[in-house]
User: Fold this.
Amino acid sequence: MKDFYILAIESSCDETACAIVKNGKEVVSSVVSSQIDVHSRFGGVVPEIASRMHIENISPVLLNCLKEANMSVEDVDAIAVTYGPGLVGCLHVGVQAAKSLAWYYNKPLVPVHHLAGHIYANALVDELQYPLLALVVSGGNSELVLLKEEFDFEILGSTQDDAVGEAYDKVARVVGMPYPGGVAIDKMSKLGKEHYKLPKVHTEEELDFSFSGLKSSVLQLKAREEKAGRELNHEDLAYAFQHTVVDQLMDRVKKAFEIYHPKHVVLAGGVAANSLLRQRMTEEFGNRDDVKVTLPPMSCCTDNAAMIGVIGTVAYNHGVRGSLDLGCDPSLEL
Ligand code: KG4
Assistant:
């Protein structure tokens, strides 16, 4: 069978990325230009700056990607692009680039969902089996997704308020760490011990998440310690926060597992890089005969276009095509 090459473009938040993926599995080239250094000065992503930087970066990133693959756009069979969810001005840049290339080179355009890309990043390291349960955790999303079969997404639970990565970033600010705070809190928690207690969160729906109350509890704890004239121990706080968050995530994953009996459990999104979450997922599902667990490679936890190439190929095979009047959808649902 003839090899199938897809050019993928991702620009939904603060990474401009292009990749070429062969047969939906093999990354031929992948280039990511991150804006983290710029946004960290402001304590979070500034949408207006992000979209301007995408405009500056998209052409060099595309050219580098083609150069790395030693290919031209003429050589690819289709062009995939993230068209939502994300920041509207950012998504527009990728979508416009993809549409221009699809029009000029007369290639099929394949619009894809950003979170579907994060889930399918796992296909780069493992054969996916269905039914598949995915815990999607990032700076903008916290979702439990069931795929009864390939390319069939059902949301089982989502956050009622903040996304888990957002909660990490906000707590990091409390202890004076720069954006993005997840990495710092994860590291710091390993130096801490069980000392502070943060409340367990209850949600009306058993598979939903909630993180804003936890963030308020951290602020209250800080105020309480200051009032009592004690210095807040940042390492112990990071330890308490990390364990409370991961306990909540694992509680929902285990409940969903008991209800739906998936054959495969995967992690996805930026927070999938979290060391405790990776450890607990492996402990829970790693030694069982009835299910397998896959953790995405660290390079696919942050935004990238390789994962868009994988889901783009799956979507193409399922007949998904975009027309040249494709727009982006900042709150696109799975
Ligand atoms: O998927 P992503 O790049 O952004 C979105 O598309 O939303 O995820 C970024 C988020 C940030 O909130 C960051 O703090 C968090 O992922 N993050 C982590 C870790 N590494 C990144 N959170 C917890 N532990 C980590 N090791």
User: Anything to note?
Assistant: Residues 234-260 form the longest helix (27 residues). The pocket of KG4 is lined by residues 13, 138-140, 165, 168-169, 180-183, 186, 269-271, 273-274, 302-303 (CB under 6 Å).
